[in-house]
TrEMBL record:
It holds the Pfam family ABM. Residues 8-97 form the ABM domain. PROSITE patterns: ABM (PS51725). It comes from Pseudonocardia hierapolitana. The keyword Oxidoreductase applies. Keywords: Monooxygenase, Oxidoreductase. InterPro entries: ABM_dom (IPR007138), Dimeric_a/b-barrel (IPR011008). GO terms for molecular function: monooxygenase activity. This is Quinol monooxygenase YgiN.
Amino acid sequence: MDESDRPLFLVVNIKPRLDRMAEAEAQLQSMRRNSITEPGCVFMYLAQPQDDPSTWVMLEMFRSRAAWDEHMRQPYNIEGNIILEDLLREPSDLRLFDQK
């Protein structure tokens, strides 16, 4: 299976501003609702670590790298990420994973 066919997993560490957590969550949930309608999106969950409520994690799986690239081109993602800039303490840390 070449890279274009392989499932792609993502873990995104998100640090919302403490004074704007409700706005950040609303924005992320809106982006998630749109994302899960995409044919290439297998799942996407916003999760909160039990030991650190001030840092969130978005757990994502796409059918392929190409599907994720298409996801990143969606207007609601581009616009949503611009909105998020003001709602986060620092840029999100994105890690890509391959299935073993």
